[in-house]
Amino acid sequence: MALILNPGAIAQNAGVSLTAEIEEAADENRAGQHDFLLVETGDRRAALPLETVVRIERIPRSRIERAGSRPVLRFEGALLPLDDAAGDLIRQTDDPEAQTTVVVCRDGQRHVGMTVSQVLDVTGGRQLEEAGSGLVAGGITLLHEKVTCIVSLAAIPPLENLVEQHAEQTL
Predict the structure, then answer these.
(1) What is the pLDDT of residues 92-107, one digit of tens each?
(2) Contacts for 119 with CB less than 8 Å, ≥ 6 apart
(3) Rounded CA gap, 28 and 25, in Å?
(4) How far is the CA of 167 from the CAs of 82, 162, 170, in angstroms?
(5) Is 94 helix (H, G, I), strand (E, B) or coil?
(6) Hey, is 160 helix, strand or coil?
(7) CB within 8 A of 131, min separation 6: which ones?
(8) Who has the most CB within 10 Å: 15, 58, 78, 115?
(9) pLDDT tens digits for range 74-88
(10) What pLDDT score does 17 carry?
(11) Can you tell me the distance from the alpha carbon of 40 to that of 125, in angstroms, rounded to the nearest whole number?
């Protein structure tokens, strides 16, 4: 069993155009407000910018494969690099039907996936400033009155580096 959420289709079924949502998000961004998907990754909370979330899937762990040392998922006819933020893939299990939750996100032109322990909420957050300097504290937001790190999707390395990494490991 897989739980698949497609925000675009949900918006379309609700009669909301994606253009209107993007314009609303731009207005919120100007005011320092952003919407986030709040997730739990192992023992910590993390925030994913909602505009990057493509879908959320609950899948059998057996669908996750390895390309070298990297976990990947076959996704829409291509390979999706996974970040095991929840540590789910490291934990051994004897259950062949064990499930994991993967949040698929858009990072520029590519898609990346992140394993999460659970999805907690969709909520608005705001920028925080460093005390005394007035500088925006990048990569951090305030969600449910708690300081929460924003996941850097760009930190998930592209699969094109896989051949180079494999060659370095075998030397």
Answers:
(1) 677 778 899 999 999 9
(2) 37, 38, 39, 56, 101, 103
(3) 5
(4) 21, 9, 5
(5) coil
(6) helix
(7) none
(8) 115
(9) 988 899 999 988 777
(10) 62
(11) 16
Amino acid at 70: R
Q: Pull the structure tokens for residue 3.
A: 């739980």
SS3 letters for 3-26? EEECHHHHHHHCCCCHHHHHHHHH
Q: Which tokens is 47 given?
A: 């925030």
Place of tokens 């762990």: 61
Per-residue pLDDT tens digits for 124-161: 998 888 899 988 888 999 999 999 999 999 999 988 86
Nearest by Cα to 113 from 71, 161, 143 = 71
Cα–Cα distance between 2 and 68 in angstroms, integer? 26
Strands 44-49, 33-41: parallel, antiparallel or unpaired by DSSP?
Answer: antiparallel
Amino acid (1-letter code) at residue 148: T
